[in-house]
Protein 1
Amino acid sequence: MTLVFVENHDSFSFTLVDYLKRISTQVLVKDHSEKPCLDTASCLVLGPGPGTPNDSSRLMQWLEQGVQKKIPILGVCLGHQAIGVYFGASLVKAPRAIHGEAHWVKHSGQGLFHQISQPAQFTRYHSLVLQDLPDSLVASAQSEDGQIMAIQHREKPIFGVQFHPESFLSPEGFRLLQNFCSFVQCPQTVLRSTSKSISGTTHI
């Protein structure tokens, strides 16, 4: 399995890449300014970073190519926001900026959250949030204050998490990353059932 990680110059990137290297057979780190090339990629991970998706050099181009090639995609923080914006969600200022706080997250129990505690604790570092999701996206997790903390596409193998699974204050973050990589290696796994929203409504 060849995983391509797009580096958006975040201080957490090194830890996230280290986690992914423990799971994937090969991790290729690409700077967001590089011309996208996913010819040998099994999957794509869009890393965290400062600013907004459209300000992050070629980040949206990397995402576009991943979507076109129909490979599994995971977005973390900025990467999560990029996925939302790409499919038509609104990116707005959060009620308050959060930097390095562990919060409880309620989730669907499926997809990335298979066999993860309910609720689960994850670390948040962000000042922007997604709202007004299009019909193609489902909110699979939310914070206690009602903010969208994870999304997934209804039909495509595309997932996003607003929080940082690689933080030491995210005790089940490694498991979440394992769930994503398990799907890449075996699409018939539980991640095929990824259309259940946090409201409990299942969409076929």
Protein 2
Amino acid sequence: CAPMNTMPEIAKAQGCKWDPLVNVWLSKEAFEESENLSTVEKFLSQGPWHHYLHQNGSGTVKPEYERLLGAWLMKREHLIHCQLTLRQSYFWMSKGYGTTHFFKHTVHCLRFLLDTIFENPPKDLDDIQAFITPFP
């Protein structure tokens, strides 16, 4: 709908909606898809999320301005963002919208999620507990 670095006033005037999960401007049609609204609500309900200019937590940034300024966020938000963004990206592709992120971001999120798990692996990590079937 609008490039990531568009001023909020301009993006809103073009009818774009800020998606706080993926941090991009979406068309009203895409933003208001029920699956998207449900995913964004799930993300927001696990907050409140605060974004900062500095890693020490000073200088609060409004989410829709972080693409202009850059922002620091908590690891918990980063984890939930990655989990739900991967889900949302698959949804966008299945609806024919394309994805809101570059492939590099997908790889980053997968690596970040796995690195976090392996920092503190669950005791049952090596237990046999998943049954796989041929797809589809």
Protein 3
Amino acid sequence: MSEASTASKEIPVGGMTNQELKDIIHTLRQLEANWNHKFHYPYTFINDEPFTDEFKETIRRHTVSDCYFEIIPPEIWNKPSNIDPDIEREKISKLTEKGVLYIDKDSYHNMCRFNSGYFYHLERLKQFKYYWRFEPATDYYCAVDYDLFKFMEDNNKTYGFTISLYDNPLTVETLWPVTLDFLKENPQYVHPNGAFRWLTENVQHPDYTKTTGGYSTCHFWSNFEIGDMDFYRGEAYTKWMEALEEAGGFYYERWGDAPVHSVGLGLFEDRSKIHWFRDIGYHHSPYKNIPNSDKCNAPEDSGYFSPEDVYDQNCLSNWIRLEMTNKELQTY
């Protein structure tokens, strides 16, 4: 993630390892060239292990912005004590047989849980309101000539995204039932203008909603996201996260931070405060959001999805159709 100066309320943040230095430099160069050379927001780099001197020195050679290197405390990174190892072993074995990616990697589960419910409590980030998450080996193809953080604040936006996808329903099989149980006990947290139709759409993948007990698996791809951390710090999201932690799905399944953020936003926030950054050219293999604009310089064709992906993976069309207001539609 990256961050802004301590005099402001915003910060870019990236989670990565020492081994990803080459890939983060690839991304950092594009962020600097296409946006941050105008604004000089500082960056915060996050790791569960100490960064090497080589990593820090190389990063600093590629930006004039301040850089901070933070270590995640083990108490918010490591597997919590309420996870039953026998239950975990049994469930992971079954999902491994079904070919679920990363299901046997503890570090992946730790990362998903940390990004879902803990990154915004890091000491470095407590002073900040907005964050921009970036990841190694991603591409930013378009020049952005305005301050994205100021846009979020001036337009009262809580969250911004570029790509929306369906998830593997096996990874979130009980996320929705656990959430519904929470809402039965806490109906006051549901926002009356939430993105309910997007969360429960069952036309493209009725088999997904059947597996998950009603959740479409639509989510904002969180490897790019700009958000208001005060939303996550709020009572509704905090209480819900406590229920998710108790259920253990970050380890018994593979609940990702993308569906967790998305379900939380869709239920507890006004959908009009969620913004599709159509003008940000972004690529994270294999998907992309690249406007047909003279501000963009991409090696591949502009577009949002290749034709073969539209049916199987793309949930952006549902967001546009079901949740965007007429005013928002008229701006595109």
